[in-house]
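G., before I forget:
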Amino acid sequence: MEENKNEKPTEEKRKRFGFNYNKHYKILFFIPILVLLLSLVYLGIFYSKNGDIIYKDVSLSGGTSITINGEIDQGLLEAPLKEKFPDVSFTSLTDITTGKQVGLQIKSSAASAELKIAIENILGYGLKEGENSSTESQGASLSKDFYNQLIIALVISFVLMSVVIFVMFRTFIPSAAVIFAVFADIVMPLALINILGIKLSAAGIAAFLMLVGYSVDTDILLTSRALKTKDEPLNARIFKAFKTGSFMTLTALAAVLPAFFIVTGLPDSFRQIFLILSFGLFADLVNTWMTNAGIIKWYCDKKGIQ
Amino acid sequence: MKIGLRAWILIIVLFLALLAIAPWKTFEEGVLIKSVEANSSAFESGLRQGQIISSIDGQKVSSFEDFSTIISQKNYSGENIKTTVLTNQGEFILFSGKTPEITVSEIPNSNIKTGLDLSGGSRALVKAQDRELSSSEMNDLKYIIANRLDVYGISNVQISSISDLSGKNFLSVEIPGATPGDLKDLISSQGKFEAKIGDEIVFIGGERDVESVSQGGQDAVVSCPPNQGGSGGYFCQFRFGIYLSPEAAQRHADITKNLDVNLTNPDYLSETLDLYLDDKLVSSLLIGVSLKGRAETQISIEGPGTGSTLDEAGKSAQQEMKKLQTILKTGSLPYKLEIVKLDTISPSLGESFTKNIILLGLIVFIIISVILFVKYRKIKITLAVIMTMFSEAFITLGVAALISWNLDAPSIAGIIAGLGTGVNDQIVIIDESVSNKGISLRERIKRALFIIFGAFFTIVAAMLPLFWAGAGMLRGFAITTIIGVTAGVLITRPAFAELIRKMGE
């Protein structure tokens, strides 16, 4: 393989890295911890203000989402609807290949009949579900059930992941470090979507479950390279794991980021899933290679693992 | 290079996936029979659901348009005419004065089915009001609703009972394609029909009292009086006949026996026959004097329909009639139901979504390929990774087709996100195999597989709770992800590792 050609500079880089890393890894470790703490404080304040840890969309709080087919002028509907339904929100949907608007989605916590009539009155024509429009509506109590269950599912998912990690590594601190990194991978994107004011849907929470599984592979890579192999110095092992792992995260981002460019042409559930996954993957870069790596390095130093 | 055992397994599985997806269906011509009305002349002639019609009276049918043009040209008007239908299961000859009682659709392009959010249709999530139903009660309900929709004329309905994390039971009713306007009523109205004289019940809806219901022809009509209009809107009337059981007819005789003649209108009796639907009065029918004390089995049911135009009023009367006919035939639901979630998606919106999602999938493939090539600078490795990625997506689609899973948007998101983890694992294999020259390649790949299996078990564990949470609405996301990663660790990754090992040696 062509590795030999690059042997020298890489070797040097590794040494330099090793030196710097020995010196600075604790600082690297505290940056994400600080971000995590700030995120947790922010979520705490958010909770005390809003009574919940997220803004929920109609799929979690109950209400109606009506999508009218065709080119619909949002400006025409916005003011009169806002007056009647203060929480109404709009999303324009487009066909990516032609760039033309194919529909306008209107969401509100109001009952479907009320919202429909209000829209019909402004548009001046009737909305026929399944023909010129689509309607999704859901009762408030069901939505509350859904929300609670998805949160329970997230907790179960996290616990199951933790069990798998403990079974794999069978040592407390390294396993706890992985689990801690995954926890941070959830908390940071959560704070970010709240800061951005994004309303989370059921699919969005499902994306958090996937994130639990999605973000853990780089942590497993790091931990197993650091603990299960002894053929190279520790720093070199961590650095190599970093090279592989960051590239892995990059390709995973390549799978989820393109969705942003055609965001207006995708179903709601799709948008949310890719949004959460990409936030989570960015957080994962930081939490694996700064937080988790820091703990592993410290653990190995303590245990005398070279 | 010799093809190893694991590569052979991959090739065989890919071939099976291809069989399951059956993409060659695109080239099949004709229309698919989606349903055939029971006991109709079409049914008696031998036409059945699932057959593919390729020609009618020698005229080629290659699309739905062809089918409807040919049928409308035939001009069925009551007199029996001959219709020759050629299907993939042979030729059938109908002699009937009515349009063949079948519904048809275009042949699907493949066995891959898309969910309602992409193909259009309605989905209702229903639960019993104020009580939890046991699973056997749930099954009864399933049967009654299916029967009701069938009588109403909606075929192809998928009804399934779902229980969620907290043990609550729901009934999910899915109807692909066009949506009936009064779906909500059809599913959730209890349909308790009572015909009363005074406080006494003469008959109720359902088989026990109602032996048959006229649903067409002279015995079921809508009429709109001419010269109406003005501020009060328009008004039409429906009327259809039913046949009561002897017991119900006897009850009618017993109750009317004691009634007096109406003093102001001496052609009729003093009390009316009041029709109640779910405790609401639908209409009151005058009872002719001649019917007094008679065990009359044939009864005419009437009721109104109103609207702001004559056309609307006619449609409303038609719809009301259909609803009553259905309820009289199928009886009431044993429990009060409520619709807790109702989604109705127009097919055209889904079409645009599907197009965009396919485009997105292609972009993801291209970007990942470019990144891999830039990193490894080896066309062989890049191609191997892309082939593996493609295989995983293809196997996932194959399994989805095999288990008839309807791919909704979250399911497809799961496939695309799964591509990301798939590539990750291959990167681990490549990097493990090119580094650490001190240890045997076999050992290095073993290490890679440790990481890969660890990641596999965590993602499966993480997605499992979605099977139950939120009444399984996001189950598809978990299903495709789990199929994808499982196909990955069991089939594609071993093949890929073998390939890399051969490249290394």
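Strands of chain A lie at 55-56, 63-69, 89-94, 101-108, 133-138, 199-200. Residues 1-8 of chain A have pLDDT under 50 and may be disordered.

More on Monday.
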